[in-house]
């Protein structure tokens, strides 16, 4: 009947510990070879890295200035955001990533894109003008 429905007794199922590990393995074994064969990374976006799978999900907040984005984030976090201020004119017109950590601090954008543990390496094409703002 269907060849894909036949049980193959010689092939043992691959076990994975987490969903993230399974997705990472599936991407590297099945999807990445197809992307490389069709040169997907040459004209669209670079290949996914381990940090893209291992990090927490992210939420993008964007919109016109003075619409309450910073106030909304401050309300959710129940604390001030380092380096931010609120005003009627564009005050927080920059790239900001707020992440959980053991200590508070500010890391420059151009340092984030070279950290292999962070999922920001693909922002490199936007240049230092974007990352330093």
Please characterize this protein's 3D structure:
The chain is mostly helical. The protein has two domains: 33 residues, no CATH class; 77 residues, no CATH class. It is 35% helix and 0% strand. It contains six helices and no strands. The radius of gyration is 21 Å and the shape is elongated. The mean pLDDT is 80.
Rg on CA atoms, Å: 21 Å
Shape: elongated
What is the CA-CA span between the terminal residues? 61 Å
- How does the major sheet shape up? none
Number of strands: 0
How many H/I helices? 6
| Order of SSEs | HHHHHH
Summed up, the domain count is 2
Instruction: Look at the structure and give the mean pLDDT.
Output: 80
Membrane topology: Peripheral membrane protein
Pfam family, one: EHD_N
Keywords: Membrane
Protein name: Dynamin-type G domain-containing protein
Short description:
Residues 53-133 form the Dynamin-type G domain. This protein has 133 residues and is mostly helical. It contains six helices and no strands.
Relevant terms:
133 residues, mainly alpha, 6 helices
Explain the layout of strands and helices.
Layout lengths: L18 H19 L2 H4 L6 H5 L14 H9 L31 H4 L14 H5 L2
